[in-house]
Here is the input.
Amino acid sequence: MIKVLTDTRSIRIKGRSFLALVLSPELPLDGWLSRLDDLASRSAGFFLGRPVVLDVEDIEIDRAQLKALIGELAKRNVRIMGIEGGRPSLFEPGMPPAMKGGRPAPDFEVPSAEATEAKTGQGKPAEPAARPEVQVVRAMPSVIIKEPVRSGQSVIFPEGDVTVVGSVASGAEIIAGGSVHIYGTLRGRALAGSVGNASARIFCRKLEAELLAIDGVYKTADDMAPHLRGQAVQLWLEGDSIMAERLN
Amino acid sequence: MAKVIVVTSGKGGVGKTTSTAALGAALAQRNEKTVVVDFDVGLRNLDLVMGAERRVVYDLVNVIQGDAKLPQALIRDKRLETLFLLPASQTRDKDSLTPEGVEKVMAELKKHFDWIICDSPAGIERGATLAMRHADVAVIVTNPEVSSVRDSDRIIGLLDSKTERAERGDRVEKHLLLTRYDAARAERGDMLKVDDVLEILSIPLLGIVPESTDVLRASNLGAPVTLADNRSAPALAYLDAARRLAGETVSMTIPGEKRGLFGKIFGRRAA
Here is the structure.
């Protein structure tokens, strides 16, 4: 039987990064769990609703122990979304998936004993005192490339903006988590907001691009308005479509 | 001090071997000891263009594998006593080249020659990366058409990352040699113009070699174009390019432009 697709809209697949807590258990596990209980007693709900990744790289643990540990954590309302640094033999169906390629982020502040006591003294419930806001506006890291990006080369920088002082050749690509700035001719591909940033933009001094993308929305050379070709252009996202206008 | 030049392009059929032979002969004519090395193992051509195909006994692979000594494999040119050829093997393939072997051969060649010109095979695989590995200078041969320009761009990227100099944090000096250029067709828009190519590749120009039947005639004669007829338009372009490589300042002529020397030749032919 032939399947008929009535809805021909394409599926949109994007990358997105989230900040997760990483728990690194230490041996013996009993001792570590009791210290965790102590932390939880000072700050109820610290782990509630937070994605937690278990890092087992530095400990010798077998599958049964890992399974028991996940169970113990579940009893404490700590839900594990993934396991980092585990050997493939540690995993069995039903366990959280293996994760890799994580990048370190600023350390989470664990509520200290004094701070909690001070608060409880005021009769307030033990709120997660130093719950850091993930959406804090921080200085975005950026990278500056002072040479032309040649055909076949990729610049991948999910952390932030990419600036190229030079041209991006046909067959080259720039993939940035933030915006892409090209002080030269863009002949290759530019992908801005690659990890889910709809406010990212693409700027270039001369547009001859093969492909443009912002936050997973694509536009090929054929879809671009001919009057923009060869011009200094900026591109941004409005809803599901890429908008473009000439600079200056 | 020996200088190692790689003649490379990425794309096939743009004139690497012709340019290697022509530049090699031009540099040797300056009385500087020059060797041209064929890295195109399995598809060797340089011996034909140099007219030495019937004198090949040992080759680069034999030297690398220790079956022959370097002096046994070097072929001295019959016309120029400062010009030598190190041929490639026709019966092997590029896997016979090892990084250690190539390094040893290059180190030995550097002791004996002023110029070592490596004729790179097409592509970006082992043969091409080993040919560029030890280069001090790269001559990037490009035709004025988009596919050749893009492939050259790719090669320039590799020269900036895969060479010994790049790994030391140094740079390979890169020069563009534009070959098979036809001013009339560029003017009509059938071909990229010189400025277009320079804008895309953004490396300095070493020379512009005009499209000419003299090139084909010379290779069929088995002579580098600079030796076959040193008054022909391509020969003059290669001789100028060789002087620039040697550090001289020579004004650039675009073949086909009225005031240039080539213009006169073209003008005469058209009349």
Observations:
- The mean pLDDT of chain A is 80.
- The CA atoms of residues 37 and 76 of chain A lie 8 Å apart.
- The two ends of chain A are 56 Å apart (CA to CA).
